[in-house]
Amino acid sequence: MIAVDDLIALIHNYNPGCNQDLVRRAWAYGEAMHEGQFRHSGEPYFTHPVAVAAILTEMRLDDATLVTALLHDTIEDTKSTYSEVERLFGTEIVELVDGVTKLTNLQLSSSEAKQAENFRKLLIAMSRDLRVILVKLADRLHNMRTIRSMRPEKQAQKARETMDIYAPLAGRMGMQWMREELEDLSFRVLNPEARNSILRRFITLQREAGDVVHRISNDIRSELDRAAVEADVYGRAKKPYSIWRKMQEKDLAFSRLSDIYGFRIITGDVAECYKVLGIMHQRWRAVPGRFKDYISQPKSNGYRSIHTTVSGRDGKRVEIQIRTREMHEVAEAGVAAHWAYRDGARSENPFAVDPARWVATLTEGLQNEEDHGAFLEHVKLEMYSDQVFCFSPKGDVIQLPRGATPLDFAYAIHTRIGDKCVSAKVDGLRVPLWTRLRNGQSVVIITAEGQRPQASWIDLVVTGRAKSAIRRSLRDEDRERFVRLGTELLRAAFAAIGREMSAKAIATAARMLGIGSENELRAQVGAAEISARKVVGALYPEGVPVEPEVDATRPVMGLAADQSFRRAACCQPLPGERIVGITYRGKGVVAHSMDCEALAEFDEQPDRWIELRWQDGTHPPVYEVMLELTISNDAGVLGRACSLIGEHKANISDLRFLDRKPDFFLLRVMVQLRGVSHLHQVMTALEAETAVAQIARVRDPSQRP
Q1: How many other C-beta atoms are found inside a 10 Å radius of the C-beta of residue 150?
Q2: What are 328-348's pLDDT values in tens digits?
Q3: Which of 256, 407, 543, 629 is deepest in the core (most CB within 10 A)?
């Protein structure tokens, strides 16, 4: 652990006017509060807050942020209190500490509903003061650097959470260096074999070809010197995770990857950036489709740079980024540039975009979003998306994710424009609504009164904002139909127990079930989100007969006392399906579904058939069924699918991968269920998951008894 004087020296390097007394008091207080606490590695716990503060000094942050780092675990993990920290260090710091504490308590990898709610809290905390997320990101970075001392299962959980949430968030905040390090640290935990393989290949490549980075850097410097351009040149091999991701996306072996090296040229001004671009393209052949000008069209997080890829020495593809020194500072610091100090004064960087603008865009229209899946989809789309830039008729630039359509453009202008959109003109030509927009196109949206969003539009848009607005409109349109259907279902359920449905009874049931209103309850019943039986049971539990629990050892009727029973593996029949028993010598009775192909071979043996039916009542979830899923090869998809199965009270007893491709996985999952209605619930939930492309029940005729 570095000493307090060393920490102050780090701060003093960029902010000579720092409040040394404040830092020393925070150090002493934090050290006293954490006295006797230790990390998993055995080190004193206070080494962690100090390390977090040291990371933030690399970003040249202000005193309040550094003090927050020293105190960020005191309210949560020690006897310290909010009021005491406020009394000792002031309102600004205690609010920052409290914000970090609340972020720490968020379980961002929990069930979908809980995760959505915690994402909301995360965004709210960010919108109040972005320094909270800077401290949290530094906290996560140090925890990932020291993760080896944790239990393996805890390492995997933290690494997945980092890969899914914190790494893309760091990138979205413009802190690309932190994103790359978080991704690579997570990659080391989640797939150490792949990472080590890439590192070994790098070593082999360097041994065979020498120091490629040094040679190419010298080539670039020679060209710049010849043109009398003063610029700094930096080169590096890309991170293992970045390389592995590209290998997976393009389904290429390491030996076939060409652009595994990246170079940055830092110039004095914008004019020199374009001059350097010309020099590079004159000396080496540019790779088509690999040029991006983020200087004339900056990213929404303030990032500006020119990206190009050329065929360099020995035909190797080389990625080159060209930017000014000011742009480089923004690219390295991201949103931290807003609080960075230089020579004791706050940096005023003309290229730093207000990051609160992105947070406001991210949260716009979501405050009343009740669909947890839609909310998470919106947030993650916005965090991961690349950008295209299109122009409105007035010349305004509209930023959209890559792959966006005119519908996305319409909803980006205003929800009302999107809802009424009937067609669009792109560069003066009328195009279908599913057309993918490209950079620099001019878009005119054509609207009509009476037009309403169509269900098919969900598949045409890519922005979270558009998907959320379309779903909300469709939900409102369906609501009246669901209310009518729910009313009839409730009337029948009340009549079945000899009761009369009344508005007061429905209002009381809604209150007891925690549903906002009487109409909402009717709508949920009509949409099959809650059963009419459950509503009646909430009011008259004695009137609704309780189904008996069925004994798993005798689940069917029709067997003699001495006959044993088992389900056929070929068709895996479930309670609720029609079944027939076939006697096997020495094996007892085997139950098949009535539509099982195996029954054909017993057509001439009627003496072996036994009439069976499932016992009435609630069966335990012990009946295995094989499901075949095709899912997107994306981070967290398999976890979400497994969580959905668990949320529906079903257990996974086996899971096997049949095929792995760069864009999808094909797998078979053995699930334990209560019956056919339980199977329908699980399959419906999985079909609704965006990343699940296909799902089917598998019956294997080769598994005949």
Answers
A1: 18
A2: 887 777 777 767 776 666 766
A3: 407
Q: What is d(CA 375, CA 372) in angstroms, rounded to the nearest whole number?
A: 5
Which of the following is catalytic: 76, 371, 478, 624? 76
Pairing of strands 397-401, 341-342: unpaired
Q: How far apart are CA 522 and CA 516, in angstroms?
A: 11
pLDDT tens-digit series, residues 555-614: 888 888 778 888 988 899 998 888 888 888 777 889 988 888 888 788 778 788 888 888
Query: Is the whole-model pTM more than 0.70?
Result: no
Neighbours of 432 (CB within 10 A): 10
Beta-ladder partners of 632? 664
Distances (CA, A) of 404 to 390, 458, 470, 693: 10, 12, 15, 20
Of 148-152, 367-371, 388-392, 441-445, which range is least confident? 367-371
Sign of the torsion angle spanned by Cα atoms 550, 554, 555, 561: negative
How far is Cα 434 from Cα 460, in angstroms, rounded to an integer? 6
> Is residue 76 annotated as a catalytic residue, yes or no?
yes
Whole-angstrom Cα distance, residue 703 to residue 571? 8
CA distance between the termini of the chain:
66
Computed on alpha carbons and rounded to an integer, the radius of gyration of the chain in Å comes to 31
Q: In what order do the strands lie in the sheet with 623-632?
A: 651-660, 664-673, 623-632, 692-698
Angle subtended at Cα 248 by Cα 246 and Cα 250, rounded to the nearest 5 degrees: 65
pLDDT tens track for 197-229: 888 777 776 666 567 788 888 989 999 999 999
Mean pLDDT of 122-144: 79
Q: Rounded to whole angstroms, how far apart are CA atoms 54 and 390?
A: 42
Rounded to 10 degrees, the C-alpha dihedral 365/369/374/378 comes to: 30
Can 77 be counted among the known catalytic residues? Answer: yes
- Rounded distance, CA 138 to CA 56, Å? 7
Angstrom distance (rounded) from CA 104 to CA 125? 11
Convert 533-561 to b/e letters by CB count within 10 Å (16 or more is b): eebbbbbeeeebeeeeebeeeebbebbee
